[in-house]
Amino acid sequence: MRRTAATVVVLLASMGILNAVVPSGMAAENGLASPMGVTIPKGYRDWQVVAPSQRDDTDEIRVILGNDIAMKAFRANTLPFPDGTILAKLAWKRVKSPEFPKTFIPGVAPRIEFMVKDSKKYPSTGGWGFGRFIDGKPADAKVHATCFPCHKANVRNHDFVFTRYAP
After folding, report:
1. Which whole number is the average pLDDT over 42-61?
2. Who has the most CB within 10 Å: 28, 41, 42, 91?
3. What are the residues whose beta carbons fall under 8 Å from the beta carbon of 69, sequence distance 6 or more?
């Protein structure tokens, strides 16, 4: 399965889609932060794949990436995740492949999202800070207010993280 997840990222990168998620020049140095203070981490596109996923209700294909701290925790099945863990969710609207109609491929990239584990900075949200960015700009506070309640309601017993490691 790990090869499959890595293959997805390689395929997306070769199609120019992985790098197209954040427009050129919209990296962490843009200084923009979510209402929780989360920024787009520099170099996140080089992180390893935790797992791919698909969400039918939003017609999205997703790839979850993790920094080195996240990957070590996933591989060791460590919960709670240690401070310093960062997860990136890259999402694309899924569209039917023109070459193979039974297959979906990435279309428009509506946003990228990040979860940053810092138990001292984010105690009221399970130790996690959230950042949702649309065209490199953070979504507003109202949008960010929806993140933790969903994670709390659905994945409280997995340190508020939906993604499971695809070895």
Report:
1. 94
2. 91
3. 81, 82, 84, 85, 86
